[in-house]
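Why does residue order matter? Because the sequence determines the fold. Keep that principle in mind as you read this record.
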Amino acid sequence: MRTAHISRTLAAFLISGTLLLAQSPTTSHSDRNAKASDLVKAGEKLNSEGDQDKALALYKEALQVSPDSYEAHLATGMALDLKGEYEEARRHIAKAIELAPPESKIQAQRTMAISYAFEANAAQAAKLEQQAFDAQLAKQDFEGAAGSANELARIYLESDDLDGAYKWYQTGHETALRKPNMKPAEKDLWDFRWEHAQARIAARKGSAESAQQHVAAAKAILDKGGNPEQARFYPYLTGYVALYLSDYKTAIADLTKADQRDPFILVLLAQAYEKSGDKEQATGYYRKVLTVNTHNPTNAFARPLAKKKLGSS
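Structure:
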């Protein structure tokens, strides 16, 4: 009887041990993911402060802990872009696209598009933005698709492909208006963005009259009052138009009223000062650009130019 009891106890112990062994990899995997996530968050803080090297060290540690961490690969790619190591950046972003959960796939694709924007490679960026656009359109996410279209249009514009910019801004506007039951203020928003875009394209083409007509149309939409939050984009518009029409005094006056946290505004101001002959002010604004550590289209256009200008000064 005692022998039978011991046997049952031993069997129960062995079964329990087997279950614990079976569960431990799962628990360990969860712990590794949590540790990797914490490392990525700590790295993102360092990256935002401009310390890409220390951030990358944490991302590397995160990938050692969890080699298939989507977040770690994506964060690594973004930090490398800010350092100017574009080929290595895209290797990690490509891995992030491969590992991305369905709800993050579009974000990863657009991050890759922005990576190409750092090198003004609109043709490659277009492939990624097109994928995002098509996926959003398939889900009838018309606003999301319009956002992807406009993002691609801006990449085309700042990569000097004015026809590509016009085509995709028009596509963005038309796609946005497909949203069912659109409110008047929403339509005004997309109409404002379309006029804003056409004014900038016209200025880049040197067509002052057309540019000013679209600026006036954008202002008329703002004056309707349905989108007060868009007012901050108006001095950016007038400053941009003035810069490309060689009115540097107006460009400086208007861009100074625009968002000074936006690296693209800062780089436009730097160019306006440079073209007006004030190298000291230009250098100061180029330096300010490099204090911004975001991975987005505005920094993709601004940061490489600032680095180039400061490197040659």
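The CA atoms of residues 162 and 201 lie 6 Å apart.
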